[in-house]
Structures are given as C-alpha cells and as structure tokens.
C-alpha cells in the first residue's frame, strides 16, 4: 500500500470500523493480531495508530477478509508466538516489579518482553540470540546494520550493554503510560500536563525521551 493511500484514523473512525464487523474489542484484536490495550487507547482517542499499525488498519478497512486469511496463514505456518507487550502490560497492571532490574532478577522474567521495550525507542528491527546461559539482543534501523544493545546473563539474572540505562528508563515510562497515565485523556489539559511533568521528574527522563516512547509504545 503506497503512502498516498494511507489515511490517518480518528478514534471515531476506528470504532466505527470495528463495530461494522460486529466484533468486540477483544475479538477484533484477536482476529487481526492487534494489542488489545493499545487498541483501547486508539478507540478512546488518547493515542493514534502510526507506522505499520496504521497501514494494517487501512488494509483491514479496505480488505479485511483478505488480511484475515493472510494472518491465519501466517499463524498456521509459524505457530503461536508470545506477545511480549501483553506480558509487560500484565506485569504493570499487577504493580509487582517497579523496575526492570527487579523484573529481570525474578523468576517471572520472560525474554519476549525485551523486544517491545527496544521497539518503544523506535527500532524497527530487533533480533534475539539465545545461548546456553545468556541472551543477546541486537537492534537497529536496518537489518544489515544491527548492533548489540543488551545482553542478559540468565544464570546470574543480570544484564549489561550500551542500552542498559535507556532500557531501564523505557521500562519506567511504559509503566507510567499503562498505569499512572492510562486515563489521562479524561483529565483537563492543565492537570494532565502537571501529572506528566511530575512523573518525568520522578523517573528522571526528559520530555523528548518520554514523547519518543509514547509514539512507539
């Protein structure tokens, strides 16, 4: 689908498109492989779909049945893959691990939850290499220029790499988006601005970093 045919979608547009299918939010997301929590943000209007998500919604609107057939074919050939973002959201909702370090050192840690945090920084390509006792994460903007950004020692439950500080802060921002700011769309602009500013001070990130994660999360 060429860029000139990709149109932006408002909350009302997305909701209307889903309702025409007769599916609930949960069913719609399950059918088309969308993240339920993110889709709810779209229908509420406090976030807008961008990038590949926007392309997919345009394709669903124009050729929903064909898209569903393709997705079903992919699922049959590749099998079910764990949705790392959904796992993270579940962790945030339980408010059990307040930092990434706490989470990685726990018995609940799942390596599938790291790629969504890397993509939240705008990396479209992420690869994972598993060894006997460690996992290496590569990320970049092109497949042929991926660089090692993080390495996790599964035995010691520790991690290192050039991206360690950034991934820590990304975890905190994502946590805030899903818990502390999930209903921000219903607040007054002044109240929302004040709350965001206070959270950024608490987790020690600037507005540019926050907005980058917000766009890609």
How would you sum up this structure, described in words?
There is one protein chain. The protein has 217 residues and is of the alpha+beta class. It folds into two domains: 3-78, lambda repressor-like DNA-binding domains (434 Repressor (Amino-terminal Domain)), CATH 1.10.260.40; 84-216, no CATH class. It contains ten helices and four strands; from the N terminus they run αααααααββββααα. The protein has helices at residues 11-21, 25-32, 36-44, 51-78, 84-94, 100-104, 114-119, 164-178, 189-203, 207-216; strands at residues 125-130, 134-140, 147-153, 158-160. It has a four-stranded antiparallel beta sheet with strand order 1-2-3-4. A hairpin with a 4-residue loop joins strand 3 and strand 4. Helix 8 (164-178) crosses helix 10. The protein is globular and about 50 Å long.
Flag low-confidence runs: 73-82
The chain-level structural class is alpha+beta
Shape category: globular
Largest sheet, order of strands side by side? 1-2-3-4
Number of domain modules: 2
Mean pLDDT: 84
Major β-sheet profile: 4 strands, antiparallel
Rg to the nearest angstrom? 18 Å
> Strand tally, please?
4
Helix content: 40-55%
Following the backbone from N to C, one meets helices and strands in this order, namely: HHHHHHHEEEEHHH
N-C termini distance: 23 Å
The proportion of strand residues reads 5-15%
Number of helices: 10
């Amino acid at each position: 689908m060429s860029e000139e045919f990709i149109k932006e979608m408002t909350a009302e547009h997305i909701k209307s498109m889903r309702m025409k299918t007769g599916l609930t939010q949960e069913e719609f997301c399950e059918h088309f492989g969308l993240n339920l929590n993110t889709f709810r943000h779209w229908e509420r209007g406090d976030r807008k779909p961008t990038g590949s998500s926007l392309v997919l919604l345009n394709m669903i609107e124009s050729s929903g049945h064909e898209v569903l057939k393709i997705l079903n074919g992919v699922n049959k050939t590749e099998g079910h893959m764990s949705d790392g973002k959904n796992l993270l959201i579940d962790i945030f909702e339980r408010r059990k691990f307040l930092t990434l370090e706490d989470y990685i050192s726990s018995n609940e840690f799942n390596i599938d939850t790291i790629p969504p945090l890397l993509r939240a920084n705008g990396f479209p390509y992420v690869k994972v290499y598993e060894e006997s006792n460690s996992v290496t994460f590569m990320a970049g903007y092109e497949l042929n220029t991926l660089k090692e950004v993080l390495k996790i020692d599964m035995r010691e439950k520790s991690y290192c790499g050039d991206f360690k500080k950034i991934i820590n802060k990304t975890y905190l921002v994502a946590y805030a988006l899903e818990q502390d700011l999930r209903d921000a769309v219903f607040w007054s602009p002044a109240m929302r601005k004040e709350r965001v500013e206070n959270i950024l001070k608490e987790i020690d990130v600037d507005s540019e970093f926050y907005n980058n994660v917000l766009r890609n999360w």
